[in-house]
Amino acid sequence: MTDNDNKDVIAPEGDVNPINTDYQVGQDNVALQIGPFGLDIHNRVFMISGLAIVAFVILTLAFQNQVAPLFADLRDWLTSSLDWFFLSVGNIFVLVCLGLIISPLGRVRIGGTKATPDFTYVGWFSMLFAAGMGIGLMFYGVSEPLSHFGTSFGGITLENGVRTDWAPLGGAVGDSAAATSLAMAATIYHWALHPWAIYAILALGLAIFSFNKGLPLTVRSVFYPLLGERVWGWPGHLIDVLAVIATMFGLATSLGFGASQASAGLNYLFDTPLGTTTEVVLVIVITGIATISVLAGLDAGVKRLSEINMALAAVLLLFVIIVGPTLLILTGFFNNLASYFEHLPALSMPFEREDANYSQGWTAFYWAWWISWSPFVGMFIARVSRGRTVREFLVSVLLVPSTACVLWMTAFGSTAIDQLVSKGYEAAANAAVPLQLFIMLDALPLAQITSFIGIILVVVFFVTSSDSGSLVIDTIASGGKVNSPKPQRVFWCGFEGLVAIALMLGGGLAALQAMAVSTGFPFAIVLLVSCVSLIKGLMSEPR
């Protein structure tokens, strides 16, 4: 940039190789004053993405009965037709990350050769974990291991020569030990290296091109080595519009999962009514709390809530390890990792899969969901990772959260499976998915307390995701301005809640999943191209 004093571009410390461009952050923006509120928006990105989302919400609410089956059919078609594509790109992202870690490019420091980290490791890891996986781990921590165990133990079923079971790979019919091992490997595959590699690729690109190259903190900047000055025109506008829409629907999916689980927990503890009405009320209330967090700012809002949630999550995890099958959990952690690496080649194979229900219904959906989240999580990680080397960044973003996810899934999944196999406790396995966590905790001491902590965790993960998501969307929609007026973030925060409500009313979880997959596919192509641009950018940086 020619203006390093711009408050929206943080000046590097030490040696960097900046990109010389005449573009100024916000030069295409429109500044408005609506009453006491000031707005500063990139007119094309804001208007196109905003109008597209508004039109979608209106149509979904107006034709609720008609769109529900349409969403379900769309999700099934995308995951069944494009499963090979999603599995392939997931593998590519992992390989690129590993290649950068061992290459000399790993010595490049984000923010310049003399940059120092803005956050301690504790604060950094807390924000990484809370933003990236929180709601998903709460929702699937018990249900996914139980589901894969049940289908694996049941084995393969055929109708007219076609597999109809949901077992991963070939299953493990009648063998509880082998079924447990395969179930945990299949679960860890969805929550360890692959999703974090998806986040890391975009996060690293955003960080390098903003903090080292001096470009706006927005997705289009990553493509400067390939598009040149055209990145400030319509090619860049389309990239940012797609990033806003993908982020919005990825967040809405997670908010929908969080609302359904919080509703189930409240019904279990306090006998509140179940149904869409309760979930909509929860979305409204928690979006209001997220708005307060938005107004508090990054340090006082997201950072503080993330650290509180990490402490609560650690307490709940430690409780389950101590009062659950402790030895099984501790030994299972290492056994599950070994099983994961043993089955990883087969689980990640994109072609000629016989376990279509697992690879399409689980993996393809997950990868599309993670990809739709990548602009949000990637930009958030980029903003809090200045001062780290590329190697330190990738090792931390890949390994630390992955290890935490493995431990979480092992503790909760192994406990639930042990309750089923060793004690004959079938209630959790037979419960609805949003309720399975609370039913599993019910078989342990202090169930009322731990279930209430579980609800708090879901709510606060909900709040941190909505808060940091509105921060990211607003940054993109304001042309890379990181200090845009707070009313804009409040607007996007409320908008996220409206989209989640519209999808819940227009088809429930199927609608949420369909939109996550739909936006994940085109953005996967964007991420693939960004890998090339990222490597070109790193090769020009001093190490």
Q: Can you walk me through this structure?
A:
The protein has a two-stranded antiparallel sheet with strand order 1-2. The chain contains 20 helices and four strands. The chain is mainly alpha-helical and 543 residues long. Helix 4 crosses helix 12, helix 5 (134-140) packs across helix 10 and helix 7 runs antiparallel to helix 15 (390-421).
Roughly what fraction of the amino acids lie in strands? under 5%
Overall mean confidence score, pLDDT: 89
- Give me the count of strands: 4
Low-confidence stretches: 1-6
The oligomeric state of the chains shown is single chain
Largest sheet: 2 strands, antiparallel
Strand order of the largest sheet: 1-2
Rg? 23 Å
Given the helix and strand composition, which structural class is it?
A: mainly alpha
Judging from the principal axes of the Cα atoms, what is the shape? globular
- Helix segment count? 20
